[in-house]
Amino acid sequence: MKPITFTPTTYASIVFSAIALLLATAEANLFNTLSLEPLRVNAGEYWRILTANFVHFGWAHTLMNVAALLLCTLALLSEISLTKYLCLFLLCCLSVGLGIYWLNPQYHPYAGLSGAIHGLVFAGLIQTRAYPWWIKIGGLLLAMGKLVQENLPGYVATDLQQLIPAAVAVESHVYGAMAGAAFALGDELIQFMKRKP
Questions:
Q1: Would you tell me which of 23, 121, 131, 184 could form a disulfide with 126, CB atoms 3.0–4.6 Å apart?
Q2: Whose CA is closest to 87, among 127, 45, 120?
Q3: What's the pLDDT tens digit per position in 17-33?
Q4: Does pTM top 0.90 for this prediction?
Q5: How many Å apart are CA 100 and CA 122, to the nearest integer?
Q6: C-alpha 142: how far from its chain's center?
Q7: How far apart are CA 158 and CA 175, in angstroms?
Q8: What DSSP assignment string belongs to 140-175?
Q9: Which domains can be identified in the chain, with CATH numbers?
Q10: CA of 56: how far to CAs of 35, 96, 110, in Å?
């Protein structure tokens, strides 16, 4: 069993979680200022592409995402450098924001961290050295199966829908997963080229 270790990466995820929790206590006006509204982005409010990841539709949504972020970081990402973690986190958040903005403007407002968390999961499963290859492959297959299932026609996230007063933007999970996988594979290629004589 992998021991729990607190590293700079772990503390960064705690800071991100604290920001999400703090924003959950704020008034609705702050949610309206930070969530992703395509028309307002068109008007020049570009920060929403990033900040939408940190605001949520109520406490249940916030707590689910904070718990997932902390567990993911502890289980899969605590061994990577802080710089790499911050770059990965930023890439996943931006990819989700831009993906929703360009391809799914029907989600207005869009809010939540689950898309970026999917990216962290994929990157962590690809790059972690804490588990044998068969566990990593199994985890990736399960994660890919989840993405396929929830993006099939007619899929309804009924259990989550009861907790979150908004449609679950399952497409955001794909955007985050693609960004995380691309980051991890790109980094693996860079490391391989550095080792090559």
A1: 184
A2: 120
A3: 999 999 999 878 899 99
A4: yes
A5: 19
A6: 17
A7: 22
A8: HHHHHHHHHHHTSTT---HHHHHHSSS---HHHHHH
A9: 8-195 (1.20.1540.10)
A10: 8, 14, 9
Asked, as a colleague might, if the bond just before 38 is cis with ω within 30 of 0, I would say no
Question: How does pLDDT run across 108-122, given as a tens digit for each residue?
Answer: 899 999 999 999 999
Tokens coding 96: 């989700």
pLDDT at 153 over 90: no
Judge residue 195's burial from the number of C-beta atoms within 10 Å of its C-beta, 0-12 exposed, 13-18 middle, 19 or more buried.
exposed
Closest CA to 143 of 99, 181, 186: 181
In this structure, are residues 110 and 32 in contact, taking their beta carbons and an 8 Å threshold? no
- What is the percentage of the chain residues whose pLDDT exceeds 90? 79
Categorise residue 66: left if φ over 0, alpha if ψ from -120 to 50, beta otherwise.
alpha
